[in-house]
Design brief:
InterPro entries: ATPase_NBD (IPR043129), Gcp-like_dom (IPR000905), KAE1/TsaD (IPR017861), TsaD (IPR022450). It is found in: Cytoplasm. Its main location: cytoplasm. Belongs to the KAE1 / TsaD family. It is a single chain. Helix 9 runs antiparallel to helix 10. The protein is built from 13 helices and ten strands. It has 359 residues and is an alpha/beta fold. Strands 3-2-1-4-5 form a five-stranded mixed beta sheet, with helices on both faces. It has a five-stranded mixed beta sheet with strand order 8-7-6-9-10, sandwiched between helices. Bound molecules: 5'-O-[(R)-(carboxyoxy)(hydroxy)phosphoryl]adenosine and zinc ion. The site of zinc ion (ZN) has 7 residues, from helix 4.
Length: 359
């Protein structure tokens, strides 16, 4: 059987990703990040990200084709992230994909970025034994849970079928978890990206030094066993960020040195506690037995530790793809495109538009 050769393009945030797959085989996964250009602002600036995609797109494409030793003409289809993400950033990838599809006369598949994060499981080499296309084809009826945590998203999904049945259980109402890390790092005078910096600083701190709020975990949001709260599986990190700011301001007003390690550790504990509690609630209530952890924050040492611990307590199998497939990349987009094409799904219309809030 012919395995489709697919070019995948990802540009929803600050990574310009080009991935090439042949069916479930990953040929290349090229990522160019504009992270450095956002450092002095302490967060991703959409306009800068868009311009960086424009600069990186064609060189990244050439590099990927060369590395995979294939040509554009050989492709069976082009797949591109259609959303959700930053509107201008998405538009660069979608425009590039359309141009390539028209020029080379290839079908084009618009891909949902969040579903693609789970689509890495369609690859033979996701970094987890047994997490591959066969696994994705034999999902139990209750589905696979996915906890996606990055600078752009914080979501809990249930995937019952990767191409036709994906449900969003919960999401952040304000900041993404990674964004909260980045903003708090800035308050503490740590460098961007804040995640790794806080992760490191927290190692020497006391996570119980400050009792920071656990957003949307009060009964009126979570509900009880009998009664489901309106934001049971949702997240909010803006109150936490404000609480950290108040503490830091307090030390500064008193002319005292800010205990950076303790604040970092306490903040991190609040974030990770809420994320893992809500993920466990979702899994137990939905009968989910396997949880995938994805997104850039999956690199966080405390999140990995507490998720592993709580999954074990709840009898849930935790799977974490290799980090290059957890962070934003083109391979996941290509992998999902290959699956859609393999299933004989119709490609997207050439005039489809990027949708920053794609459901
Ligand atoms: O998935 P990702 O590379 O892409 C975007 O969201 O664009 O995630 C980047 C995010 C940043 O917010 C960064 O601070 C966070 O992931 N991050 C971490 C760690 N490493 C990266 N957050 C917490 N702990 C880490 N070790
Ligand atoms: Zn992502």
């Amino acid at each position: 059987t012919h395995e489709p050769l697919i070019l995948g393009i990802e540009s929803s945030c600050d990574e310009t990703g080009i991935g090439i797959v042949r069916g479930s085989t990953l040929l290349t996964n090229t990522v160019s990040s504009s992270m450095d250009e956002h450092v002095r602002f302490g967060g991703v600036i959409p306009e800068i990200a868009s311009r960086a995609h424009l600069d990186a797109m064609i060189p990244a494409l050439h590099a990927a084709l060369e590395e995979a030793n294939v040509t554009l003409d050989e492709m069976d289809a082009i797949a591109v992230t259609a959303g959700p993400g930053l509107a201008g950033a998405l538009m660069v990838g979608v425009s590039a994909a359309k141009a390539l599809a028209v020029a080379a006369n290839k079908p084009l598949y618009g891909i949902n970025h969040l579903v693609a994060h789970v689509g890495v499981g369609l690859l033979d080499d996701s970094g987890i034994e047994g997490f591959n296309a066969d696994f994705m084809d034999s999902l139990p009826k209750e589905g696979l849970g996915a906890l996606l945590v990055s600078g752009g998203h914080t979501e809990i999904l249930v995937v019952r079928d990767i191409t036709s049945d994906v449900e969003l259980l919960g999401a952040t109402l304000d900041d993404a978890a990674g964004e909260a890390y980045d903003k708090v790092a800035r308050l503490l005078g740590l460098n961007y990206p804040g995640g790794p910096a806080i992760d490191k600083a927290a190692r020497n701190g006391n996570p119980k030094a400050f009792a920071f709020p656990r957003g949307l975990t009060a009964r009126k949001y979570m509900g009880t066993d009998e009664e489901h709260g309106p934001h049971r599986y949702d997240f909010s990190f803006s109150g936490l960020k404000t609480a950290v700011a108040r503490v830091v301001e307090g030390f500064e007003a008193r002319g005292e040195e800010v205990p950076v390690a303790d604040v970092a550790a306490s903040f991190q504990e609040a974030v990770v506690d809420v994320i893992t509690r809500k993920a466990m609630l979702a899994c137990t209530e939905q009968g989910i037995k396997t949880l995938l952890l994805g997104g850039g924050v999956a690199a966080n040492s405390r999140l990995r530790e507490l998720t592993a611990q709580r999954c074990q307590e709840h009898g849930i199998k935790l799977i974490i793809p290799k980090l290059s497939l957890c962070t934003d990349n083109g391979a996941m987009v290509a992998a999902l495109g290959a699956r859609l094409m393999g299933e004989g799904r119709a490609p997207s219309a050439i005039d489809f538009v990027a949708d920053s809030s794609l459901p």
